[in-house]
Amino acid sequence: MPDLATRTRSGPGRLLIAVYAVFALAATARSAVQIATKFDQAPLAYLLSAFAAVVYIVATVCLTRGNRTSRRVATVSIVVELIGVLVIGTLSLVDAQAFPDATVWSGYGRGYGFVPLVLPVLGLWWLRRTGQVADR
Amino acid sequence: MIDALSTTLTFVALGAALWGVVLMIANRPLAPDRWFGLGLLGVLLLLELGLLVQAVAGLVQLFTTDRDIEEFTFGGYLVAPVVIIPVAAFWALAERSRWGPGVLVIGCLSVPVLILRLGQVWDGHA
Fold it and tell me: What distance in Å separates residue A33's CA from the closest CA in chain B?
């Protein structure tokens, strides 16, 4: 049987990492442009964008590395991602004034086809599934 | 923007994505030594060349236009697909299962989205 790292980044995991990588790129580019060109307009939203970008980068890198430590870090970052999309998603609907400009997680990721909402669930499921095989 | 090129690239990317979906359903890996794998990689090469032309033409237009557009956003949408396709191909080739083409589907589907956003930024309602 292939080792844990190989299993983590193979099969559906490879697709998952690809989606994470796209979001890491999208969130990083978006927040970089926001912070560099119009930070004063909505500092909170833009800092959250940057935070989301970091979370996606960490998840992408750690899922790709796939060893035990990396998987633990990936789990934490994906849980943070899930909490982030739920909290920011709710806040952006309840208190729209606090979020004058959109982040990746606004409206539960509506601007990105709700993929930001589904992705952490799939990520945790995949980590759980590949981890279980290892215990057997 | 060069509308004809952007439209062509959109359809080529969607075609490549569809090809990837078919390979996933047929449970085939992205095999470069088989016609269905080599053909898809060939289409991706054409797509990449087209995206490069679009990026160069777009950047030239960006520096010569009188329009007031968000130059960094525009530049980002020009360069991103040029980076995404080769990385997706590399990542897909390392996978010896149906999920390899799956990676290409994700990469290819990002191209029409980026081209759509590119047009919106160019038109000024971004």
Answer: 6
Q: Does A93 touch chain B (CB under 8 A)?
A: no
Lowest mean pLDDT, pick from A103-107, B43-47, B81-85: A103-107
Span B112-118, average pLDDT: 94
Q: CB B67: neighbour CB atoms within 10 A?
A: 12
**A10 close contact with B: CB closer than 8 A:** yes
Cβ contact B117:B77 at 8 Å: yes
Q: At a CB cut-off of 8 Å and minimum separation 6, what does B31 contact?
A: B37
Q: Which residues contact B64 (CB under 8 A, 6 or more apart)?
A: none
pLDDT, residue A107, reads: 87
Task: Give pLDDT, residue A116.
Answer: 93
Measured CA to CA, the distance from residue A85 to residue A30 in angstroms comes to: 17
The tokens of A18 are what?
């690809």
Answer for the pair A13, A65: CB distance below 8 angstroms, yes or no: no
Confirm if B30 and B95 have CB atoms less than 8 A apart.
Answer: yes
As a whole number, mean pLDDT of residues A35-54 equals 88
- Asked whether the beta carbons of A71 and A88 are under 8 A apart, the reply is no
Predicted confidence band of residue B125 (pLDDT cuts 50, 70, 90): low
Burial classification of residue B30, based on how many CB atoms lie within 10 Å of its CB (0-12 exposed, 13-18 middle, 19 or more buried)? buried
For residue A5, the chain B residues in CB contact (below 8 A) are: none
Helices (H) and strands (E) in chain A, counts: 5, 0
Compute the distance between CA of residue A127 and CA of residue B2 in angstroms, rounded to an integer: 44
Q: Whole-prediction pTM value?
A: 0.91
CA distance A88 to chain B (A): 22
